[in-house]
Amino acid sequence: MAGVAETVAVEVRDLAGEIVASLALPTTDPVRTIKRHLRDHCNMPFFCQRLVQGIATLEDDSVIGQLPRPLHLTVVVVPYDAEMGDALLDAAGAGDVQGTEQALRSPVNPNHVDSGGATALLIAS
User: Fold this and answer.
1) What is the fold, at CATH topology level, of the domain defined by 7-77?
2) Cβ proximity of 72 and 17 under 8 Å
3) Can you say whether the dihedral through the CA atoms of 2, 31, 25, 48 is positive or negative?
4) pLDDT tens for residues 2-42?
5) How far apart are CA 60 and CA 85, in angstroms?
6) Which residue from 60, 61, 65, 75 is spatially nearest to 11, judged by alpha carbons?
7) Which InterPro entries does this chain map to (predicted)?
8) How far apart are CA 20 and CA 1, in angstroms?
């Protein structure tokens, strides 16, 4: 049937081997689709997730249909990097949009506060 994308089964396990997600996704979707699902349904911060297949860490832009099958992935959730919190606050305070975006794409707590209790969002405003 034209217009219907092929789907592929994706199984995601945590480091303990427990299944955290079983998905059927279009082969044309990027890996970031899996990470969004884990963020929305498993409360895993998007930029703290590392999806691993075998020994390879998958890139967010990788197309699911181009990955080796079966798609049995492991999610590793890395902790927030406290040093990046200060970098986020500095970039926001300087009005550095690119630096702020770069910091937010790292495993940084977006609610990191300065000594006065201000977050990057408050500082940027």
Assistant:
1) Ubiquitin-like (UB roll) (3.10.20)
2) no
3) negative
4) 567 799 999 999 999 999 999 999 999 999 999 999 999 99
5) 22
6) 75
7) Ubiquitin-like_domsf
8) 32
